[in-house]
């Protein structure tokens, strides 16, 4: 009876469905939905960890920012070269993108050639690998008759984990896919490529998953996920920027490269690992790393199948227990075999020196199915985690989204796509997920990323390039300034630069003493000062002052109202100091162009800086002030001198440094004065020998340079717009390029143009952006601060009613930098003309001189002073120019001139 049962048992075994024994043998590989949901939840937790700056270092899913924020809009155009490096071969492509052929319209043409990578390069030096890439690129250019001399924009698909700080920079974190290139980890791969290739400009480096998403996104608006299932595996998706800690900004989205192949490296998948997974990992080049990829990707699926079949054969479950040498050899079953095994099982097994029975063939087919299905199930779990996160980020109950897919496993395995789609939809029934196969590979996507980058860069370049002045242009500005200085000193002939005599013949000598009033009108404020000098003690000066605002309606009202307001401020200050009954000598700093015939008279030539008070131009401002004092009839002043603020600044600084013979104002206005030889000043009737020194301070009023059209070649359309909207259309052209009163308005005009072109503020031209004067120059100083983060820039813009993203902040900062740098360079060119003239006046080969400086632009802007000084140094190499900021302003200078004049009278 026992014998009958044994025969029956063995007979039933012989008749058993061969797939069932495989099911029992690979039970651990068959994952049910609860397990997949558990894996998906663990993956979501790891994503969150990877996005956090605090925990990113320990995260196995690195969540690398790609700096890809913009997708194609249809206005991209041009020809691009593309390199695709990520496996045992790499491709070189020429990609042509036609304008206006965007979403769902095609418009991309490609030619490509594949080049093998010799095995020794995969374990060689990095320089050798990139030299090979360079030589292959040159071969492609030669074959396609593409010029080797012309510079070509290049897209670079680099399918390895990289940390990117910008779109065109990426430091390699680690190699994968059998690459073990030496001396390259932690280095910028784009820089290495640039060094290997002479005539290309690498505009963008992207991961193959990102490029796949962009390729499919070119045809489908909803494509916001990229998936690779090939030799390696990875996914990317559009994450909300507010969650990406490693990048500044909290608005908009950025594509994140998950690098999900490392999921499980911390043991999170240990309970799902089989002995075959452990054997594959132990025999790999990177044990303990890329665990998820080793369970999923094409590089390992064939080896997993081989190990399963080998063990089943050893246990007598296949091939009657026979094990061939080929079956024992690593790599003998490839991923291509896994994809093809259903159709050619017998041929593949026979090629391994095996003699399979029909049941053996069925069993091996089932092994490949289970191994492949586990791969697709794990990918489904990871994808479900990504889609769930997107849905939660956007607070949606249902999500419509497209996943762009590429990779040999997905493309060639007959059952893989269907299984993947089915499981994803089962895990996320509330999501409508469409899968789109990338028909052009990742290279097309890389070219599109580059096309988008070039579209944005070219528009910005076109807009900002007129502000970037060459050395030759600055030399021309210096020469024109010099010509203007010379012309202004003559009595005949026109000159845009007024070159007004100040009748100040001396800088301070330390003998000044006594109490003096300084009155300073130069912009939107009026300053009253009391200065006490002690004889021979330059550093023992006492100064008291108060600041008063000049309202807009006073600036642009009547002259009588303006001077009455000034006198009211003086009265308040004298009350404050208890000096109402004292008749003090006063110096009046009046920072507008004046024709002087003596030190105590000054006829206003024209208003600047937004002043428009009537009945002042053509009148002596000292007389206007004296008349206002009489009308008030509360006090009397002895107005000894009227000076320009540049002269006051020079005098104030000369009190500290005897070499100071130039004054510069770089603030609300822009102007310079300097000590000129009297013999060169035709406007004065001074005779030689009448004065101790044959020099006089000249107020250049250099802001008028260009009023004759001499700067038209560097004036931009934005400057023209600012000029046309000003109170003095056609006047003070140089000042409108260099002074604080106008720079903010120039920036606003540029921002307005960029917004209309769709490069800023989502293309939405708001009322604040259309408001003249809203962008004050102080914002340039704040925005360009090296210590200011982009979020703070964005806060400034939002405070102005400009709803901006951090991308917008980057562009605004660039615009501010271009406008302010040009202003500083122009001032530097003008200064070079002035100091060179002084040097030549004195017949010197080399001049040491100090420039006294005042003005908020010079003092508060983080880069203005440095650029100005550098430009002056380059353009006037025979002059050693020291810049000395004025601590006390031009009011102290006015007091010094008054003191000097009074002492002169007593001598």
Task: Give your account of this protein's structure.
It catalyses: a D-hexose + ATP = a D-hexose 6-phosphate + ADP + H(+); D-glucose + ATP = D-glucose 6-phosphate + ADP + H(+); D-fructose + ATP = D-fructose 6-phosphate + ADP + H(+). Pathway: Carbohydrate degradation; glycolysis; D-glyceraldehyde 3-phosphate and glycerone phosphate from D-glucose: step 1/4; Carbohydrate metabolism; hexose metabolism. Residues 22-217, 461-655 form the Hexokinase N-terminal domain. It is a single chain. By secondary structure, the protein is of the alpha/beta class. Strands 1-11-10-9-12-13 form a 6-stranded mixed beta sheet, with helices on both faces. Strands 14-24-23-22-25-26 form a 6-stranded mixed beta sheet, with helices on both faces. α8 (275-282) packs across α10, α19 (559-577) crosses α20 and α21 (645-654) packs across α31. The model is unreliable at 1-14, 101-106 and 687-693 (pLDDT under 50).
> Given the structure, what is the number of helices?
31
Number of strands: 26
Query: How widely separated are the two ends?
Result: 147 Å
From the spread of the alpha carbons, the general shape counts as elongated
The rounded Rg comes to 39 Å
Strand order of the largest sheet: 1-11-10-9-12-13
Helix-and-strand structural type: alpha/beta
Mean pLDDT: 85
Low-confidence stretches: 1-14, 101-106, 687-693
* β-sheet strand percentage: 15-25%
Task: Describe the main β-sheet briefly.
Answer: 6 strands, mixed
Helix content: 40-55%
Catalytic activity: a D-hexose + ATP = a D-hexose 6-phosphate + ADP + H(+); D-glucose + ATP = D-glucose 6-phosphate + ADP + H(+); D-fructose + ATP = D-fructose 6-phosphate + ADP + H(+)
Domain Hexokinase C-terminal: 225-452, 662-899
Family: Belongs to the hexokinase family.
Subunit structure: Monomer. Interacts with TIGAR; the interaction increases hexokinase activity in a hypoxia- and HIF1A-dependent manner.
């Amino acid at each position: 009876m026992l014998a009958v049962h044994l025969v029956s048992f063995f007979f039933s075994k012989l008749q058993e469905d061969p797939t069932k024994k495989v099911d029992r043998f690979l039970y651990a590989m068959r994952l049910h939905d609860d397990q997949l949901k558990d894996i998906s939840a663990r993956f979501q937790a790891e994503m969150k960890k990877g996005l956090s700056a605090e925990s990113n270092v320990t995260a196995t899913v690195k969540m690398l920012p790609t700096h890809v924020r913009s997708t194609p809009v249809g206005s991209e155009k041009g020809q691009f070269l593309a390199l695709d490096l990520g496996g045992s071969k790499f491709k070189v492509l020429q990609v042509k993108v036609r304008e206006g052929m965007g979403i769902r319209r095609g418009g991309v043409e490609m030619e490509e050639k594949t080049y093998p990578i010799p095995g020794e390069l995969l374990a060689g030096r990095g320089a050798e690998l990139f030299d090979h890439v360079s030589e292959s690129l040159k071969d492609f250019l030669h074959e396609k008759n593409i010029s080797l001399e012309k510079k070509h924009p290049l897209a670079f698909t680099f399918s390895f984990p990289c940390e990117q700080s910008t779109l065109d920079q990426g430091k390699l974190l680690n190699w994968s896919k059998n690459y073990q290139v030496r001396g390259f980890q932690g280095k910028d791969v784009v820089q290495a490529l640039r060094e290997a290739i002479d005539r290309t400009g690498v505009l963008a480096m992207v991961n193959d998953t990102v490029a796949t998403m962009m390729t499919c996104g070119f045809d489908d608006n909803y494509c916001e996920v990229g998936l690779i299932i090939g030799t390696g595996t990875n996914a990317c998706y559009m994450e909300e920027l507010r969650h990406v800690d490693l990048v500044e900004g909290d608005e908009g989205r950025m594509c994140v490269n998950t690098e999900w192949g490392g999921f499980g490296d911390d043991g999170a998948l240990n309970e799902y690992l089989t002995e075959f997974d452990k054997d594959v990992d132990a025999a790999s080049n990177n044990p303990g790393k890329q665990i998820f990829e080793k369970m999923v990707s094409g590089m390992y699926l064939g080896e997993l199948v081989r190990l399963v079949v080998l063990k089943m054969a050893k246990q007598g479950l296949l091939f009657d227990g026979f094990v061939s040498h080929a079956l024992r050899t690593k790599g003998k079953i490839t991923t291509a075999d896994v994809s093809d095994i259903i159709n050619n099982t017998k041929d593949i097994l026979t090629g391994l020196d095996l003699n399979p029975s029909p049941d053996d063939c069925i069993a091996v087919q089932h092994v490949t199915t289970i191994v492949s299905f586990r791969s697709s199930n794990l990918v489904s779990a990871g994808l479900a985690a990504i889609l769930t996160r997107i849905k939660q980020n956007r607070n949606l109950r249902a999500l419509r989204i497209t996943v762009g897919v590429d990779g040999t496993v997905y493309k060639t395995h007959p059952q893989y796509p269907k299984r993947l789609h089915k499981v994803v939809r089962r895990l996320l029934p509330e999501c409508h997920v469409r899968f789109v196969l990338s028909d052009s590979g990742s290279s097309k996507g890389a070219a599109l990323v580059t096309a988008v980058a070039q579209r944005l860069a070219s528009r910005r370049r076109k807009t900002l390039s007129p502000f970037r002045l060459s050395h030759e242009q600055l030399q021309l500005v210096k020469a024109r300034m010099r010509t203007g200085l010379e012309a202004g000193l003559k009595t005949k002939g026109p000159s845009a630069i007024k070159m007004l005599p100040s009748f100040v013949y001396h800088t301070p000598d330390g003998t000044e003493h006594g109490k003096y009033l300084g009155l300073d009108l130069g912009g939107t404020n009026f300053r009253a000062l009391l200065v006490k000098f002690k004889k021979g003690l330059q550093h023992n000066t006492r100064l008291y002052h108060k600041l008063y605002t000049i309202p807009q309606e006073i600036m642009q009202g009547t002259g009588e109202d303006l001077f009455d307001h000034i006198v009211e401020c003086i009265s308040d200050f004298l009350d404050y100091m208890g000096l109402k009954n004292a008749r003090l000598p006063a110096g009046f700093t009046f920072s507008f162009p004046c024709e002087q015939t003596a030190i105590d008279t000054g006829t206003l030539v024209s208003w600047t800086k937004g002043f428009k008070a009537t009945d002042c131009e053509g009148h002596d401002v000292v007389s206007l002030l004296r008349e206002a004092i009489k009308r008030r009839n509360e006090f009397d002043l002895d107005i000894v001198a009227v000076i320009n603020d540049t002269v006051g600044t020079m005098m104030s600084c000369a009190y500290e440094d005897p070499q100071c013979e130039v004054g510069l104002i770089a603030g609300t206005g822009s102007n310079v004065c300097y000590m000129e030889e009297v013999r060169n000043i035709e406007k004065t009737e001074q005779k030689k020998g009448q004065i101790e020194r044959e020099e006089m301070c000249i107020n250049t009023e250099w802001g008028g340079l260009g009023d004759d059209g001499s700067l038209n070649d560097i004036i931009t359309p934005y400057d023209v717009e600012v000029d046309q909207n000003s109170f003095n259309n056609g006047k003070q052209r140089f000042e409108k390029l260099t002074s604080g009163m106008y720079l903010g308005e120039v920036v606003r005009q540029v921002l307005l143009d960029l917004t209309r072109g769709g490069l800023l503020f989502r293309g939405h031209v708001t009322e604040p952006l259309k408001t003249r004067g809203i962008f004050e120059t102080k914002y340039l100083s704040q925005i360009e601060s090296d210590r200011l983060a982009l979020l703070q820039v964005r806060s400034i813009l939002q405070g102005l009613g400009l709803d901006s993203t951090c991308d917008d902040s980057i562009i605004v900062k660039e615009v501010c930098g271009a406008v302010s740098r040009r202003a500083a360079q122009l001032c530097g060119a003008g200064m070079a003309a002035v100091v060179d003239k002084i040097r030549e006046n004195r017949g010197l080969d080399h001049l040491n001189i100090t420039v006294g400086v005042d003005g908020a632009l010079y003092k508060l802007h983080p880069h203005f002073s440095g650029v100005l000084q550098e430009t002056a140094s380059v353009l006037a190499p025979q002059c050693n120019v020291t810049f000395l900021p004025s601590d006390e302003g031009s009011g102290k200078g006015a007091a010094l001139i008054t003191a000097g004049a009074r002492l002169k009278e007593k001598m």
